Amino acid sequence: MILREGIGFQLLTPKEQQAYKIMLQAFSLMATSINCAQFFRDIDLVKVINIALGDNPSVIYFDKTKLEIEQSFNGKRILFTGVHSKSQAEKMNFTLDDFSNKIISYVKTRITDEYSLLIKLYEVLQRNIIYDKNEIQAISNGVSQNPTSHNAYGALVNRSAVCDGFSSAFTLLAQKLGFECMLVVGRSDYATTLQDHAWNIIKVGKEYYHLDITWDTRKYNEFDEFSYAYFALTDTEIINDHNWNSATTPVCSSRDFSYYVKNGLYANTTTELSEIVKTHGRKNVNVFRIKLDRNIKLPNNAGDYLVQMVLNEVIKPGERKQASYSWDENSRCFFVKIL
Known about the structure:
The protein is of the alpha+beta class. It folds into three domains: 7-79, no CATH class; 88-254, C8orf32 fold; 264-338. The chain has 13 helices and 14 strands. The strands form four sheets. Strands 9-8-7-6-10 form a five-stranded antiparallel sheet. It starts with 6 loop residues before the first helix and ends with a strand.
């Protein structure tokens, strides 16, 4: 189990960094608790431990959903529950390392540039991990039934996860590929429901980007086609449906790694939108992905309007075709699959 001071550590105060280091020492020993007498009293313990765990996805020996802070005459203690025996934890870490190394070997096959590595990793996770709906329902009722769905082991070995499991798996694999990557804990507005959520921030070169592999995997499961709507977003883009403490994360302001920008699928104007649709049509493809700048005004029935634009380009005289599509006003991403 390799522990490191990651992106999150760099943004903490000196007092918080001290607590972070103590937590890493406890994780390395597979401790069942941490004596908080070692910390400054004004430390936000939940914040620091979430960042320490987010930077270190290989910590899987206890149940992250049941962290407790105990107050007694002797002071505070952080208690870990659902702790595995040392032998079982070591076996799980060995298995996780084996699975992750095999994935890394596959991802790196004939690929050297950073963008292609991350895209292939993103696709591998979408294709191989199932979103654990039963665990989400259990958590909404206050009790986890499958704690491993919240960590990298559940995602990569059991191939079943919820958002923090997806994000932990991505962090682990991205770090093995040589990237700095962290897990972000916040809230999201998915399908009009505000809920706790986790996603990633990754550093590429000198820039940082948001990635939400969970939401894109849910789109993949719906259409059986890869989704990139939440791959390499800026703060301004993702804040439309994600909320977090921005003081705990680096600024994400570049679009350089956006799937849509990289592939010429980002429309800044209605003219560019029309040209992208026409270019797609000439390629005779059955899947269209386009991202629209917020300056582009669309009618209320935006999805139907965009689908019709596409169909007008691909349907030949006398043909009849149907299409399934998705339009998301928050991400401004349009997807259509011609059937």
